[in-house]
Design a protein that fits this description.
The chain has a domain of about 150 residues. Helices cover about 75% and strands about 0% of the residues. It is globular and about 60 Å long. The chain starts with 7 loop residues before the first helix and ends in a 14-residue tail after the last helix.
Length: about 220
């Protein structure tokens, strides 16, 4: 092989080896997951031979068009809009919110700046977890009703718990923002109203989720 010319055969071998390793890791993960489900007295559902992708997509669409998902997606959209509109015009001490978020290192921040930055990270982190976990919870709930499989029920309740905790954390973070930036209170209230409404609905639909104990997390 000429110096400086990549060895194509060697590269292909490395890629193939990496793919084999990933496949082995995936298989091991699935085995561990199946064993964990079995330890809880459940069986992981196997893919049905009559699986109809088009029908499953229709079920997903119905969930996305439902009240819970429409509100969750609306919240996520409003979060983006709020930061686009205000981050350059609100100040934390002598610097703008945008400067704080984009350019200030955490070791340089005052306690007030850290509080604002932490609230921002919480809002942004949970912004997409909320709709994601709510969809999963709703989908698993539908699968439970359709199949009676306890694994789906467990997954639905657990995902609902994560969604509720994300909503709780987001409400606390926006409340912190409201205290720091009272001049934008009228634009934060719709966000808090959506979150509060979502929490009420989710607690009714997934009434077992709030008290659900996640092994390794809640104990």
């Amino acid at each position: 092989m000429e110096e400086g010319v990549p060895d194509i055969d060697s590269s292909n071998t490395e890629v193939a080896s990496s793919m084999d390793n990933l496949d082995e890791m995936f298989q091991l993960s699935m085995e561990l997951l199946k064993q964990a489900a079995k330890d809880l007295g459940m069986e992981m559902p196997e893919r049905d031979e009559d699986f109809n992708e088009e029908e499953e997509d229709k079920k997903d669409d119905l969930i996305f068009k439902g009240q819970i998902m429409r509100q969750a997606d609306k919240y996520s959209e409003l979060v983006d809009n709020w930061f686009i509109e205000f981050e350059s015009f609100l100040f934390v001490g002598s610097i703008s919110l945008k400067e704080l978020l984009d350019f200030r290192g955490e070791e340089e921040m005052s306690e007030m700046e850290k509080a604002v930055f932490n609230s921002y990270e919480i809002i942004r982190w949970h912004q997409f977890i909320i709709p994601s976990k709510l969809f999963r919870s709703l989908r698993s709930k539908a699968n439970t009703e359709e199949t009676g499989n306890e694994f789906y029920k467990h997954d639905s309740i657990a995902s609902g718990k994560v969604a509720l905790l994300s909503i709780d954390s987001s409400i606390e973070a926006w409340t912190c923002f409201m205290q720091k930036f009272p001049e934008t209170e009228d634009r934060m209230l719709p966000l808090l109203l959506i979150l509060s409404g979502l929490r009420t609905i989710v607690e009714k639909v997934f009434f077992e989720s709030r008290d659900f104990v996640r092994p390794g997390f809640d104990i």
